[in-house]
Amino acid sequence: MSRKLKILLVYPYWLEDRTHTEDVVSVPIGVYWIAALLKEHNYDVEICNWSDKKNSPDEIRAEIESKKPDVIGYSVLQANRFGALEIAQIAKQVNTKVINILGGVGSTTLWDFFLRNYSQVDACVLGEGEYTMLELVQNLEQDNADFSAIPGIALRDKQGVPYATEERPRIKNLDELPIPAKYFSYQHVILGRGCPGHCTFCGSPFLWKSQVRLRSAKHFVDELELLHERGENFFYVSDDTFTLDRKRVIAVCQDILARKLNISWAAISRVDRVDEEVLSWMRKAGCIQISYGVESGSPEIREYLNKGIREEDVIRAFQLTTRYGILARAYFIYGCPGETPETIQQTLDLIKKIKPLIVHFFILSVFPGTALYERFKEKTGANDHIWADQIEDIKYLELDDSLDLKTVEQYGHTLRETYYSWLPQFVDEIELVDDPDFAPLHADFLARLGMTFHEGDYASNLNLLDSPDIAEKLYQRALDYYPDATAALGLGMMYQKERRYAESVRIFAYGLTANKGHEKLSLALAISLMNCGDFGKALAFLEPFESNPQALHFAAICHQHLGNHMQAENLRFKARKITGEIS
Q: pLDDT digits over 58-96, tens only?
């Protein structure tokens, strides 16, 4: 007799705490695709983002006891493997019959290690997980469950020895999968799977065999539209190289515009896979940022890392991306084979040529499933058991006698300190394409960048003490293009803080010319008018927002000054009811 199973798909917590968590708190995309396929087959599936529950074992236990899952699938990258193992152990303590299944790149690369050393793990999914998980669950519904005939998994034989079943063919037509947005809200999306690159530090060549499969433009934009209807307006397009098929990317952008989706998004690309036409369409369709892996200014180091890019490609990509009002984000790796003060200088020389407005610097790390890891094992004689240690990764410098931690950390300090000393100049030298149709988009780009210096990451960066001045210039330049709401609000608030109320009135009013009824601009303008003594005019910008307690508060002050005491008291009473101060 078959029975329907309760399934939890868990994203576990990471080993080390992080200062910036934005890149590790989002459930991986694949989890949603697996959940959607299971739901299409009428299974009770729940996604649990437990990335923040590192120090909450009792809470995890209580959740498992309450949800009573039959199967728990874990999305294992690398740094969260111990989170998965610890949760799986708790799950077995709650219910010895629960089936714990590891999936993801960590499971695919280290399945033998997990099954050989951790009895709480019942099976590992290898590669794409949608149909494998479906077949696993369908198999478990039967009275005599047997995983051995299911392709794409690893499990133990009767003697307890780990083995892998035959490889599962990759899904040829990704459009056949149900779109997860039918059931869930999320922000990370993909047009396709795989990357043609062979970078030695990346696990993609092992996971996807350097092959790429793409969804149709329509299927992808259908997903964006469903998510937009759910209230999502910003997306991370997480393809390794989103612009690989330029015709498909242009079709995606044209469809976004045809459907009038008011969204913004960030993407990832290679410097040799962008051109003016693609960037123009991407910007018009809402792209505000592209991340490029540059890695090093040294051609020799780039060759060792197998990047396959030329310096002229890097320079051209960054110039064009910035010209179209897209924030070009650069990734650099240091502490690489052959790293010296001279190669660090080559990296700085390249940075000065490309003038990136955001840079992330990382020490080269070695992960399972990468060519670097295979070289590491050959050189040291190590095996996968090293991952039993409480480490997230292995720094390459540990394998290279010519490098040491102090030297590599000094390289990082030099790169960061020099970059930030140049950043104000890079901002001043921003060149944007001269096209009237792009004026609102340029204003938006400059305003967003201004916000980064005004209230974002750069505002608190001690290497950028002149951040307020940079923000002010960016806001003003944005408003020279178009009355952008963000720029007007940012610049007007700066003037307001400096008690330059008449100037702030002018800026807020200018912003409202293209953003009629904008709540924040209207309230800010009203406050400046009040400080100028024009309470009657201020009321006109407050009265439309009768459900906003802040607007009611300021409107009450205006009426008080105008002698309308009863009206002022009525507005205060209404504001207190909205905020719950009185019932």
A: 999 999 999 999 999 999 998 999 999 999 999 999 999
**Topology of domain 185-433, CATH:** TIM Barrel (3.20.20)
Task: Give pTM, 2 decimals.
Answer: 0.94
Residue range 474-494, pLDDT digits in tens: 999 999 999 999 999 999 999
pLDDT value at residue 1: 36
C-alpha–C-alpha distance, residues 112 and 164, integer Å: 9
Question: Which token pair is 76?
Answer: 């294992």
C-alpha to C-alpha distance for 578 and 583, rounded to whole angstroms: 9
Please state the rounded mean pLDDT for residues 196-220. Answer: 90
Distance CA 23, CA 135 (A): 31
SS (H, E, C) 161-192: CEEECCCCCCCCCHHHCCCHHHCCCCCEECCE
Domain at 6-164: CATH architecture: 3-Layer(aba) Sandwich (3.40)
Mean pLDDT of 331-348: 97
- Tell me the C-alpha distance between 103 and 253, whole Å: 33
Domain ranges for the chain: 6-164, 185-433, 437-545
Q: How far is CA 160 from CA 74, 116, 118, 144, 411, in A?
A: 21, 8, 11, 19, 48
Contact 259, 221 (CB under 8 A): yes
Nearest-CA neighbor of 504 among 519, 489, 482, 523? Answer: 489
- Residue 39 falls in which region: left (phi positive, over 0), alpha (psi -120 to 50) or beta: alpha
CATH class of 437-545: mainly alpha
